[in-house]
Write a structure and sequence with these properties.
Elements (H helix, E strand, L loop, with lengths): L14 E3 L2 E8 L2 E8 L1 H46 L1 E2 L13 E9 L4 E3 L4 E3 L3 E21 L5 E14 L24 E4 L3 E3 L2 E3 L1 H4 L6 E3 L6 H7 L6 E4 L2 E4 L11 E8 L3 E9 L2 E3 L1 E2 L5 E2 L1 E4 L4 H42 L3 H34 L1 H24 L16 E3 L5 E3 L1
Parallel strand pairs: 4-5
Antiparallel strand pairs: 1-2, 2-3, 3-9, 5-11, 5-17, 6-7, 8-9, 8-10, 8-16, 11-12, 13-16, 14-15, 15-16, 17-18, 17-21, 19-20, 22-23
Helix pairs in contact: 1-4, 1-5, 4-5, 5-6
């Protein structure tokens, strides 16, 4: 700051609002903001965190309980389906199989091709996906927070701006410093073109089945398609084909704000395997008594038992991922609930840091206890026989280890006098005599 205490031209004077001091400083394609929060302001914020933390804990307990029920229901549905599925040839539709859970494999064909009318692209396949990226401004922020003696807190946030390729519109009006970083509206968007109906030899495939077929691969445009693409294109920007993609802009090596890069992916026709309920010549979800509706589609000729095994593995993976997410969010919830302790002790920053370390450990411990207890209760609720069996096995194993340990405990040594050793006894009158 120049002499006399006046702010320089590259900075703004801080404003005091609600106990928070905010000031900003501009730099080349970046903006730095300094925010100060008082100790009482932080306590108020921490109290709000307590309420949110309790809500998060309650939601995660409900979520963990629900996840165990979902796991059991899906596992039972898959077991039911694996025992009921019937494999058949796709060469003909057998009316006797109507309503049954069928497994069919075969090549997929289509009566019509795929086309993107905006750019005159034509291809044969199940699905043609257009991915559009626009060159535009992006804001990134980086914050550094320091504790002040007395419990206050100062945060320095640096906002930087750079031009990037992005497949969605970045709203520059939300930037901290929108001046000089305005993005043009995105006029061309990503889009997917899919055949309305396909054939699996004798069977008809509609949208619910086609949507589940994966295997999309990059579809590179060739120079031979350039003429058709330019004929269909009605925009004002220059068009060229670069590395198998459409480029809309004057200079392909130095992109300008608002330039476009357009690429394609194609899901080709090929062999697929389906496990679903036969409904005439179509397939639909098979409702199990356990609760789930089964409709599985895989690329290639995959046996039914392998498809069910993959579904079981996927169910197990989802179960553990949701358990881990639940425990993580439980830890965050308990940490928020205990956060006022660290804020109160931040009057002396060192004490606040030590307190937060301690409350973090406590929060993790509480999350483990509450999370595992919730899962255990859910097991008793959804799988009582299995839960009781595991508990009984655990008790028996613990008892066996305990008694085995007692039986191997060494006996305490006894001391016996050696032969010829002298013994002393006290005679009449208290005199000691040797025998």
């Amino acid at each position: 700051m120049p002499a006399g205490g006046r702010p320089s031209q590259s900075s703004r004077r801080g404003t005091q609002r609600g106990g928070n001091l905010v000031s900003g400083e501009t730099m080349s394609d970046s903006f730095r903001e300094i925010t100060s929060v008082s100790w009482f302001g932080r306590i108020k914020r921490a109290v709000g965190g307590v309420i949110f933390g309790l809500l998060l804990v309650v939601l995660m307990v409900i979520g963990l309980f629900w996840n165990e029920g979902r796991t059991v229901q899906t596992a039972r549905s898959l077991a039911e389906g694996a025992g009921a599925v019937v494999s058949a040839s796709a060469d003909r539709v057998d009316a006797a199989n109507d309503g049954k859970l069928m497994h069919v494999s075969g090549p997929v064909t289509a009566d019509s091709g795929l086309a993107d009318p905006d750019f005159g692209i034509a291809a044969q396949g199940l699905r043609l996906s257009r991915g559009v990226e626009m060159y535009q401004w992006k804001e990134e922020s980086k914050s550094e927070t320091t504790k002040k003696l007395g419990g206050g807190e100062e945060t320095v946030t640096t906002y930087s701006y750079s031009k990037v390729w992005d497949d969605s519109q970045i709203d520059s009006s939300d930037f901290k410093k929108p001046d000089g970083h305005q993005n043009p509206p995105m006029a061309i968007h990503s889009r997917t073109f899919q055949i309305p109906q396909g054939k699996l030899v004798a069977f008809d495939l509609d949208q619910p089945v086609l949507d589940r077929i994966e295997g999309d691969k990059a579809y590179a445009l060739s120079p031979d398609q350039s003429a058709a693409i330019k004929a269909a294109y009605t925009g004002a920007k220059p068009l060229s084909i670069v590395d198998g993609k459409i480029y809309l802009g004057a200079d392909t090596t130095t992109p300008a704000l608002g330039d476009y890069r357009i690429g394609y992916e194609l899901a080709p026709l090929g062999v697929v395997s389906i496990v679903a309920r036969q409904a005439g010549s179509r397939f639909e979800p098979y409702q199990t008594e356990a609760g789930d509706a089964l409709l599985m589609v895989d690329t290639g000729a995959v046996p039914a038992d392998k498809m069910f095994a993959e579904a079981v593995s996927a169910n197990t993976l989802v179960t553990w991922l949701l358990r881990a997410a639940g425990l993580l969010l439980l830890t965050i919830g308990f940490a928020l609930f205990l956060s006022p302790i660290g804020v109160i002790l931040d009057v002396i920053p060192f004490l606040g840091s030590m307190a937060r370390m301690g409350t973090g450990i406590i929060a993790f411990f509480l999350a483990i206890v509450v999370g595992t207890t919730t899962v255990a209760i859910a097991w008793f609720w959804y799988r009582p026989v299995l839960a009781v069996g595991i508990l009984a096995a655990g008790v028996i194993a613990a008892a066996a280890v305990y008694y085995l340990g007692r039986s191997r405990k060494p006996a305490e040594p006894t001391v016996t006098p050696s032969v010829g050793a002298a013994t002393w006894s006290r005679g009449p009158g208290g005199a000691a005599a040797r025998s």
